[in-house]
Amino acid sequence: MDKAWAPAREPGLPWAAGEYEALRDQVRRFVEKEIKPAADRWEDDGFVPRPILRRMGELGFFGIRYPAKYGGSEMDAVASAVFAEELGRSTYGGVADAMLVQSDMASGYVFHDGTKAQRDRWMPGIVSGEVIAAIAITEPDAGSDIKAIRTRAARDGNCYVLDGTKLYITNGVHADLYCVAAMTDPSAGSNGITMFLVEKGAPGFSVARELDKHGWRSSDTAELVFDGCRIPAENVLGAEGQGFYSMMRNLQNERLVLAAMAIGTAEAAIDITLAWVKARRAFGGVLWDMQAIRHRLAMLSAKVEASRQFLYATAWRMAADEDCMREISMLKALCGELVNEVAYACVQFHGAMGVMRESPIERMARDARILSIAGGATEVMLEVVASMS
Fold it and tell me: Coil, helix or strand for 10?
């Protein structure tokens, strides 16, 4: 399962299979050399340190999809899927999450919706890893139901004043720049949502607390409070009232990379478990001798490979600028559930070792659980699919 799904070069799509595989090899080497030896410490610390993010920026990982003038390599959605899959294979979901928010989630709002001045100011630092970015949409009473957000933004002369609370914000503790969703016209429903750029240190903005999570422990997660937070009017991201449409567009890429991360995690879990059951002695032989275990792992491998083909076929369509909302929603639901099915079986086949903190499978099972929730819960994704059927 090492080779990406990537057809031969096609008109209008400049990248061929070998170039995606070169990216894959580069990311895999980075994971082995610089992530795995240190990531247990990051799990304990609760965040990925800035030097490693700057190192990723130096290697071009945060600019895969962005123009060369910002330090990017101008690749496409297939490359993002390759990057996310390999981060998933690292076995550290929190590390992957923190890095993907930087490379493919928060940065997308700045690039796609920002003015030229906003892009020129912020994109070089985001791509280089010098500026840590975060998305602040979710609230205590508004998760997958984005239209229910209560944070308000009122115009006051040349400023907007933000009041509200954001919850479960990845990179929230250490970010330098936040893409914040707020209601500018509550009477307009989804048409009343506007996105804003809020810098660390803005008057009235604070990180209320760092949150303690079940999984993804190496990505810092925060509760943010805006209490009369004043920001310049030029910090509107896109146009006033267009925030919902901005989120719907950017969430497609977020869901793609989360699905790819889930596939990479499932692949790594199966590889680790295959090595375990082939070595673990039981009943006069090894666990691999048991047909039930062999067949279960074979079926899980088949499901992962089928989902992987769906992932890259969809990424290729995105790269060709096709409308893939239905397929992306299917993919996010499918992969989020599948990685949990795989993780459950892998813990089971590890026996008592599967629930020991020293086992990577224990950590991966905790991390996998979040993948059916983050970026759009499975039930919400299925409702999108149903509404388009």
Answer: strand
> What are the residue ranges of CATH 2.40.110.10 in the chain?
134-240
For 299-310, what is each residue's pLDDT tens digit? 999 999 999 999
Residues with catalytic function: 254
The DSSP secondary structure of 160-192, one letter per residue, reads EEEEEEEEEEETTTT-SEEEEEEES-GGGGGGG
pLDDT per position as a tens digit, 52-79: 999 999 999 999 999 999 999 999 999 9
Full-model pTM: 0.93
Under 8 Å between Cβ of 263 and 339: yes
Sequence-distant (6+) residues with CB within 8 A of 32 are: none
Range scoring the smallest mean pLDDT among 8-22, 39-53, 188-202: 8-22
Classify domain 17-131 by CATH architecture. Orthogonal Bundle (1.10)
Q: How many whole angstroms separate alpha carbon 66 and alpha carbon 64?
A: 6
Query: Domain 244-387: what homologous superfamily?
Result: Butyryl-CoA Dehydrogenase, subunit A, domain 3 (1.20.140.10)
Class of domain 134-240: mainly beta
